[in-house]
Structure formats: structure tokens, C-alpha cells
Amino acid sequence: MKKHFLYVVITAVLLSSCGRELSNDSQFDIVTDFNFDWEFRLVDSTGQNDDWKNIRLPHDWSVEASFDSINGEGATGYLPGGVGIYRKKFPLQLKSDEKAYILFDGVYNNSEVSLNGKDVGEHPYGYSPFYYDISPYLNSEKDSNLIEVKVDRTRYVDSRWYTGSGIYRDVKLLVKNKLHIPIWGVFVTTPKIEEKQAEVSVSVQIQNDFSEDKKAELRMEIYNRDGQKVNGHTQPIEVSGNDQGLQLYSVSIENPILWDVDNPYLYKVVSSILYEGKVIDQQETAFGVRSIRFDPDQGFFLNGKNRKIKGVCLHHDGGLVGAAVPDDVWRRRLQKLKEAGCNAIRIAHNPGSQALLDLCDEMGFLVQDEFFDEWDNPKDKRKNMNEQSVDYITRGYTEHFQEWAEKDLKNTVLAHRNHPSIIQWSIGNEIEWTYPRNAEATGFFNNMEWQGNYFFSEPPYSVDQIKEKLNTLPKEKYDIGETAKKLAKWTRELDTTRYVTANCILPSASHLSGYADVLDVVGYSYRRVIYDYGHKNYPNKVIMGTENLPQWHEWKAVMERPFISGLFLWTGIDYMGESNGAWPKKGTQSGLLDQAGFEKTSYHMMKTLWNDEPHLHLTTQSLDKSIYKLNEAGDPVEKKENGWEKALWFWHESNEYWNYDAKEATVVEVYSNCDEVELFLNDASLGRKKLADFDDRIYKWSVPFVAGELRAEGYIDGKKVDAGAQIKTTTAPYAVQLSVDKDQLSANAYDVAHIVAQIVDEEGNPVRHSNAEISFSITGDVRLLGVDNGSARNVQDYRSTKIVTDKGRCLLIVQSNFNAGDVRIAAESEGLKTGDLLLKIKAMD
């Protein structure tokens, strides 16, 4: 997916999004990227204003600040909130038959929009898209217009994770004819799919803002990925004045190419309104031809094929860029997850951005799009459960839920429902905590007789006991079942082609409270131990894991049960926040990738589970710091017998280096999906072992340290595979080595390059057991987005050119501007040879 700083539906007139005059000479719809030429200032708690500064959107002001253990809160990553003011001047001359709209994909949060000093609207929720008709507020011809957006994030602990602050997603300006297709007015479905033919059903709303009735034509054309027209249809329409109509039509695609996780093929519908023979409005809608089905006994089917959902949960921050995540940052992260075998994303715990969903469409990820983390009652932002204390800074979405929930939910469904990647709408995440009677009814809590472990114990109360508790415990102001029924109803009013689900933290009660009754799929949160319980007691309900520990035992439970469709690991990537009182730990380390997008050991474990292609990965650890001891035969075994069966979020510590004291006792681990692995130290075999002999799926050797090279070789069916893994003992740090994910960017002010700096020895081997401060210098026209080392304990400023490494490495991210040319990047560290590279910025065509 490429963004352009300019997008016009027809090419007759090109408009700049950088504040140059918007003259509308086209015959129909103009969609303008409105991300550039904004000004911003921050207002602090004393009313002092920062100076106005020029910025581009998306923008997150919190991530530009320093981490603060005194004035910050770990729940939201120890970064500040405040009040931010955005403004932008723009000329716009509307004709008498035109209207203008401004579309925000996300503003965090409590936004108020004004135009030329007049209030346009307010929007409290930070994650749902919204738009305004700004036509009545525009100045007369040739006058400049001033739009202002006030964002109130003084409630800087209003969430349980890092949210960011500001206009952190894209903004577009749309100019339309008064007879037009409204924003989000096209809905494409594929109700019938056969090998030779697919039916495509298109619903198009037509808005007539003229006072008189209008007759016109509606033309629909379908194009394949190569731009070839595969079908079309034109029909007359008539819409009364100041009214809206709905047009439905159906056409077929011959020999359709299906959208699939392995081949995410996209078609495009172009819907056009023709008036007196001329196109006056047009909208392009990407879609995929695909079918989905969940079965209570057999699991999930995509295009008729039974397959497991290999999913991860993702929060919306992108590490050092905060919540304002460039597409290329998401692309790098998603590509790494794809290479691990991941095929699904749960966007937790809020609606995703259009940019992220576009990438999921393009790259082949199944998506669960989630609406809310809070409903009627608030959560404790610091403790994750029901609210423990009440203070201003923790006031969250519950304050607005009764008034805004329907609009926010429906805006999300309307804006997102054409994405083929989306297979589930989640109406809520772990909501049960906030309805105390549901928690009490389970028997896990307030039950003196129960001494079990919540994660690994079945419900202490029987189904009948839970029913009795729910019938006898005092009623509360709001009922979880009634609220769930309402949310599910609103969702189905707009889309019945996806499954409605929720992430249930107390499913034994949710099955009986009315909550699960309205769900098509009941998601279990950390409750894999009751998969069989759920299937036995509620055999007609589809159940699956929707929040799971990133451990082998979780995937094992899925593979052993055909009726479980799959899972979503918590999490795919480390994220900021949910770290209350743990300074300097600013984030949560449960990801397969760290905050800089570097691979962790758990990543390689899941890669061996989710891929058929051979994979090997080596780690080491001194015996005394490891989770192992030696048995009588001298082999490493877990200190806590079968501890792997109850491992939680965080992987045990291991190292990707081979540097220890001479003859120090170490444990060498190999993660692999090969049947057998042989380990070598300096070309001497340390033995060949079978995967079947390791219940925890980790090959292990006890190895007294000797400097040199460790090498692992894999075998499948007795044949050596091409894949292998090795680690060398490194000598003293010698140089800083730079690498980049792409050495050429377009001068579009969007493209991003990730530059990794790694300390190496004189032979070029990565030094991962030693750290140093690295200083970057940048010569050329690019925008610095920041630096990070990936550690959840890194509280160095992101917006800097200096950083102390972690594991001998760090990350620099730069973004193109509008100017072409060469950019030289150098990385210096005291006593080390400087690393440098050349980055080319190519002019736009």
C-alpha cells in the first residue's frame, strides 16, 4: 500500500495537500490528503502555551516528550497528556452544487473542531472514525479558512495502555457534488462463491442535497488487480430532494481469484454517478472474494478450507513513533509476524486504523476488529480489573458510553466493513470484571473454599451453582447481558457477514448471564483449560481462544481440539503501558517482537510451531541463571518439573551469544521443528537428539563453555535440511555496523527507512553481550522519527540521535520529505569504527 501526498479521483486537475490553493475545476469528487501544513501548540496545566510549531499529521505529541516517573503513570507508559491545539489555514472555493467534508480516522481524544471560529462538532472517543459537513462554516470565495482542533488529554491515565495524544491518524478533505455517494456509502459483499463464478452484491447509498428531485445514472464497474474490467452495470436512479436512497445491484465475476491469507487478491468496485452524461461523483472500493465459516465442532473455514487461526493481539503503538505509526513501520512489523507463520491480528482493544486494515488486506491477515474495552462501568486503569479508586486522570470512555456507544460502533462498522481481512467484530474485551456479580458468580473470587489457580483450574462452581448465583446476587444498575445484546444488535444492523464475538475473561459466567447468548463466537481469555468444559456444556456454541499466553502449551491445546479454531497470543509485539509502579519498565514484554521490532526467543518458538518450513534458532544461558538443572545423566531438565505447562506471559531469559567464563556450565537451547537436531562445538558433535524426547519442544544440551562456534544442524525424515543456526564467541567490540530495510525512499513525505546499528567484533560478528552509546549523524533531507533499543526498560528520549544499545543494537527511523537527493547516515561510538550508509530519496513520478 502506498500513500501519496496528493490523491484526486480524476486527473484533470492536481491539487497539493500542502496548503496551496484548492481550486475545484473537476467534474466530481475530490479527495485531498489533509495531513500537511498544520501548526500545533501544547497547553500545560498552568495555562502556559508552547509556541506554535509546524507539524505534519499523523501526530502524537506524547511520544515527543521525556518519560517521567514522577508526573507520569505506568498504565500509559509514563508519558504526559495535556491539551493540544491544532490549526490549519486552507483556501477552498465551493461551487453552488458542491459540499465539503472533513474526515478524521482517529483523534485521541475528547476533540472539539471549529472552523472560522464556529463550532463544528465534538468527538470524545479516541479510536472511532468521524467526519463533519463543513460546508456551512466555510468563508466566502477567495478567503482563507482556519480549522482548529482542540484535543483534551488531561485525563492522561484514561486507559490501561499507551494511547498517544493528538490527531494520530490520517485526515482527509472531501469535496462532493450535492448529488453524491456519502462517506462510507458503499458496501460490497460476495454472498455466493463457486469455482467458476462469484456473485458480487453492491449496496450504494445516494444522497441528494439539492432541494429538487434528481434523476441520474449509477454505474458500477469491477476491476481486477491488473486494472482490467471484469464486469459492470449501469441503472437509472431517482432521488427526492433533500433525501437519501439506497441502490442494490448484483453482478458476477467469472473464474474468481479468492482472497486468502496465502494469496490476498483484491478486486475494486468503482461506483459512479452520471448526471446529464457526465460523472459527478465516484467512489472506489477495494474488496476480496472470500467465504468464512465457524463451526462448533470443526472450527474455522476460509474459502471452504479448514484451517487454524494463528493469531496475535496488537496494541496500536509502534514503539518509538508512538500512536502515529507510518505505514512502513506497520509493514515491517507485520512482515516479521507473517514470516513467523502468523495469519491473524486481533486489534486490541479498539478499532484499528484504515492504514493498518489496508495492510492486513494486502498482506493476508485475518482480523478481529474490537470496539470497546469499557462499557457501562469503568475499569481500574492501574490494576486491570474493576475500579479501585476514583480520580480525574483515570476517567475513560465509560463517561461517554451511554451517549456515544451506538454512534462510535456504527461509524466503525460502516468505515471498516469492506475490508476482506475482517472476519470478526468484537464488542468488548474482558468486560466481566466491571460487573461484580458476574465475577462473584464464578466461584473464583470471594470463595474461601477455593484454593485453585485461576489460569489452570476449572470453575469451582457447577453450571447450576453459577445459574443460582446469577439469579440470587443483587442486581446492579447495568446488566452485562442487556448491554451485550444492544451492542450485537447495532453491529448486525449494518453487517451480518462477519461473526460477532467478545473476549470473555470469565466465560463460565458469561455463558449464563446472557452475554454469550448474543455472540456467534465466544472468545476465551486465558481459559484454555476449560475448552473441553465449554464444548461439553455448550456444544452448539463456537468457542476459541481470543487472548492467550505466548507459550507452546496454549498452541498444543488448540492442535489437540478440532473444535477450537485457533487463538490470539498476547501479544505479537511489546507495547508501551500496563506497567504500573514498575519504573523504569515502561511497557509490557509479552510480545514475540520487542518494541523496536526485534525478534525474541518466543518468536522463534512460535515460528517452529506455525511453519512447515524447517527453522532452527540457538540460545544459551549459564546453568545457574537458567530455568534448568542437571539430572543424574547430566542432561538439562526443568527445575520446576513440567513448568512449561503453566508458563505465563514472559519467556525465560536466554542469550543469543556464546561468551562465558572458561568451562562455565551452560545450557544450550535449540528451537526447531526438525525431527532431529545435532549440536556442534568447534565442529565436534555434542550429540544428535530427537524432538519427540522433549515435551516442551526445546532441544537442550549441557555444555561447559569453550570459546569458538556453536552450530546446530537439523534433520527431517533422516535427511539434513538446508536451514541451520550458529553462534560464535566474539572478541572485543570493534565497529558499529549499519543495515537498512530499504536503501531508497520516495520523496512523498511518507516512506520510512529502518536503520539498525549493531556493535560487531573485528570479524563482523554481532556483539550481543556488550553495550555502548551510539550517536547518529544525518546529512541530507529526511525527517528524524527517533531512536530505540527495543528494551521495555529503555526510558531514554525517543526523539534523539543518541542512545545506549541493548544487546549491542539499536534502531533509527527516518522518513522522507518532499525533496529528492542522497542522505548519508553515520553511527559513531567511542573507541569503535564508525558505521555509515547511503540512503537515496527518489523524486516522485
UniProtKB/TrEMBL annotation:
Residues 184-290 form the Glycoside hydrolase family 2 immunoglobulin-like beta-sandwich domain. Keywords: Glycosidase, Hydrolase. This is Glycosyl hydrolases family 2. GO terms for molecular function: hydrolase activity. Residues 82-175 form the Glycosyl hydrolases family 2 sugar binding domain. The keyword Hydrolase applies. Residues 297-431 form the Glycoside hydrolase family 2 catalytic domain. Transmembrane segments: none annotated. Residues 737-835 form the Glycoside hydrolase family domain. Residues 665-721 form the DUF4982 domain. Belongs to the glycosyl hydrolase 2 family. It comes from the Bacteria.
